[in-house]
Fold this protein.
Amino acid sequence: MRETLTVDLIILGAGFAGLAAADAVRSKGYTCLIVDIDQPGSGASGAPGVLVNPAAGRRARMTWKSQECLNFLLPFIKAVEDFTGEKVCEHNGVFRPALTEKIAEDFKRSPSKYAWPDGWIEWLEPDQSRNRFPFLGPNFGGLFIRPALSLRGYEFCTLAARYLQQLGAEVRRVKEYELKYSETGWTLFNADCEFSAPFLLDCTGLHQVHSPFWEKLHLHAVKGQAATFQFPFALPFSESLSSLGYMAKLPGCDHKLTVGSTYEHHFQNLKPDSYGLQYLENRLENTLPGYSTRYSSVEQWASCRITTPDKMPVAGPHGDLPGLYIIGGLGSKGLLMSRYLGELVVNHIFNDEVLEPEICTSRFQTADGSDQEPFPRRD
């Protein structure tokens, strides 16, 4: 029997962005349906270890609206953990060791260069860093970011979908479907189902890159590989690390460390490979000398994250097709930004609230409505 369903919003994609948007919809009393071609967290959001680090990049720049992002994200994570009784997140902070003098110069400027909330970030001089983290490699000091956290991506997406379903959201796996627009809104259909809503929100990640709907956004896919190393001994630290790459220390994983990520702009497939493993072993060795030869087993993973030319997320309306919206281009900040962006877009859809110009889809159009040239890359 063909399933039919009408909701207020259809969300495509059950990764961080789609699940977070569904939570925003639910919190405002609207109905939604999340549709994915695979299981929740099957894309980049399903990484084995994810860092929420508001001081990212080579200069430890303060991420856009990081305080607002955490204010919305943390209650969502807690609600999922409390509801399911499973712990997927570790509030362990992130230490960013400066492995070169140049990196140290940039890191040392960060606490005063940006308007950090009190107590969020602290510079450790080389002797302080060496005393606290004697096992690290070249030591020129480092930054400790207290509100940073580490999370098991795939497990969180699975639990978040279950949490949202219990609170009324619909979740469906539909491998193949078509989309149709009419005066009454959007319909997603195939031979087995027909789902309708006045609004459609695309949170599909990689599929957005190839979608004709979003060509003007100049989205770009970057393959990222990660590896989870198992050691025959307990690791001598509880914090996650972020130097040239990240090393996520996850809850209940005293003998494991997830290391990422490669940044492959040209690739043939989304499978992990020997190149990725060697690259990540080198990252591990640079930060933790000797550890690349001491692990007992390793599990590899790979997927794609999506970026925009100016390295800012993109959210908002299509512009030409009524009722069609996007959240995309989150890059490596998908978890950090997802819940806040979901809040902003849902408020825009249902309450017509204005979106921030830094993230809005409108920034990719000129005043006459023509496509904007790709923006210069942000530092």
